[in-house]
Every structure is written in structure tokens, then in C-alpha cells.
Amino acid sequence: MKIQQIDNRRTLVTTKKYRKIVESSWFDHEKLAEQGDIIGQSVGRSTTYFFAKEGKEFVLRKYYRGGLLGNWLEDRYLFSSLKNTRAYQEHKILRKMRKLKLPVPKPVAFMIERYGLVYRASIIIRLVKNTQDLFHLLRQRALSNEEWQAVGQMIRQFHSHGVYHSDLNIHNILINKKGKLWLIDFDKGKFVEPGAISLQSNLERLLRSLRKEKNKYPDFHWRESDWALLLQGYLIQDRHI
Fold it and tell me: N or C terminus: which one in the chain shows less Cβ crowding within 10 Å?
């Protein structure tokens, strides 16, 4: 990784592949918009921007807190060292998962902005093109039995390597028209021992996510019986290990 001190506040860290092209201006969504580089956005806790540079497509996401603490601190975190920042940790786990050939986006760069004892952070990853998340897909149609099993197989693939996803929900699972799946958003993700109890909580969180959206949207194409199909895929993958 290339570490570059932009000024007395900002530190830019870039992967080797992108260190010659990434600029600090890539982290300013207003400048990207002025230059006509924004190609889309997604609104959740914050706005995530999709943009194009150098013939490639990227995702810019700023770190925001959730819960009650987020009402007070919003996008600020206590700074102890660069390696302990949320962005550094997510960038690190993405690089490790890519080496394990897990289906995750390519990490590109991150920016840390220090303000005394606190910092703000943003991360840039490659855009996984021609995909949509399971939430939007399930608003349109039901998944086939094979697709639900494939989701379970993918999750087990991560769990077999001890990957804990801190917010496994249907918004963070992407699928393309050929049925290929990806997992995104590894803020606070970490490696644990395969078989750890915390990995089971991943599945429980995903089930809560499905039930929540079903209660909110009557036309949401999910049934409780679909969960059994997902678990079948999860266990099939387990037997292949």
C-alpha cells in the first residue's frame, strides 16, 4: 500500500494497482459531480456514490455511525493510529479475502481526515457492475430454489474461512443475471475461528432482515420456507469442505 500525507489533516492510502491514478479529489463527491463523473448513488444511513474514472467504475462510501451514538458523533471516531481506523481495517480484510478468492469487491483506496483526537474516513472500492442487491430483486420477483441454495453456499464459503460480517443483510448481498453472488460492506468485519458462535449470529441477522422487509412490504417475494432452502445450501457447502 502507498501512504501519502496530503496535508496536515488528510492521509491517503492506496493499493499498489491504483496508486498512480487515485487522487484526493476522488473523495470529494461534489467535485466528482462537477466533473460529470457521478454515475449513480445509493441512499441509506448515508449516500454512497458510484463514479467513473480512468475508464473504470468505483464506489465512494463515507463512514457513519449507527444507533444512538450516531445521533451525537455521526461520522467521527476516536483516533489512536492509522491501523486502528475503520477504513484501514475494512481495506485490510478486503485485501485478505481477495487473496482467498472470496467474492468481494476490489479495495482501491481510503482517506483519513484527522481533527484533533477524532477522525473521519471514506473508502473507495471497485463497483461490482451489472448487479443488484437481494432486497431490490425480491421486490421484483421470487428467487428460485437453486438461487436460495446458492446464497447459503456463498455465506458458508465465507464462514469456512472464519469471516464474520458485522451487518449481514439482504442489502449487502449482490447478484447478477447469471446468478453469481457477491458480499459487500465489511465495515467492522473480522476473521474469527471457523465454527465460532458469532458466525451463527450472521445467519440470525440475515433472517431478521428478511422478516423485517416482508413485514414492511406485503409484495416482498420471500416466504419462511425459503429460509430452509438457504440453509440447505449452507449445509451442502459444509459437506464439501
Answer: C
